[in-house]
Design brief:
Layout (H helix, E strand, L loop, with lengths): L24 H18 L15 E4 L2 E4 L2 E4 L1 H8 L7 H13 L7 H4 L1 H5 L11 H15 L14 E6 L3 E9 L5 E10 L9 H7 L3
Antiparallel strand pairs: 1-2, 2-3, 4-5, 5-6
Helix pairs in contact: 2-6
Length: about 210
């Protein structure tokens, strides 16, 4: 919880606390803050009070928002993706997919969704925007627009993995049950298959997603 040593002139410190024993989350959080301040004092580190946020229900971290409910994608990034016009060249498509790729963990079977678009970016491919490309393009935007709030991992609970495979891609979801017994997604992962992998039986493709 507490950093034993810190160095550098600019440091971001995020403190996330859960209830422990007879202490509620706020009481534990205050204790953690005191520990952090003690380490800072010992290392002669200073904080700008105007830039500090205490006891916030949600904070922005590395392009996402973290709260007690989980991790959600930055709504501004989602809005930017959903307002994309239809790409007119490989360069425009590649630029757009760059941002979508960053948010892939929120999208089930992301690699499968973008497969038709990826084919347009292959070396020597002819740029010809067909209905299947538009459908894939729209599917990516729809999927991200309805992106779930991902569960914060809880090491005291077991994890389980759900795997799936299509003709072109493999994917999996890391899952946990929350305190209310609801099955929640921690993260989606997927990738397109290599040429030799296309010939695998379905069960082997699903096992491949576990690697």
């Amino acid at each position: 919880m507490v950093l034993d040593s810190m160095s550098g002139s600019v440091i971001d410190i995020f403190v996330h606390s859960r209830a422990e024993g007879d202490l509620n989350a706020v009481e534990v959080h205050v204790r953690h803050l005191r520990q952090v301040f003690q380490v800072m004092r010992e290392n002669k580190l200073y904080a700008n009070l105007k830039k500090c946020i205490f006891c916030a229900p949600e904070i922005p971290v590395l392009g996402c928002y973290v709260s007690k409910n989980g991790v959600r994608a930055d709504p501004e990034k989602i809005s930017s993706i959903c307002s994309w016009p239809t790409p007119t060249s490989p360069t425009v498509l590649r630029h757009g997919l760059g941002l979508a790729n960053y948010l892939h963990k929120y999208t089930k079977d992301y690699a499968g969704l973008i497969q038709p678009l990826s084919s347009l970016l292959k070396k020597g491919a002819t740029w010809l925007w067909r209905p299947e490309h538009q459908a894939a393009f729209d599917s990516v935007k729809t999927s991200l627009a309805s992106a779930p709030i991902l569960m914060l991992t809880d090491d005291s609970k077991p994890f389980h993995v759900v795997c799936d495979a299509s003709d072109f891609a493999i994917g999996c979801a890391l899952m946990q049950f929350d305190d209310e017994g609801r099955e929640r997604v921690v993260s989606y992962q997927s990738r397109q298959m290599k040429p030799a992998e296309h010939n695998y039986p379905v069960h082997d493709k699903e096992l491949l997603a576990m690697r």
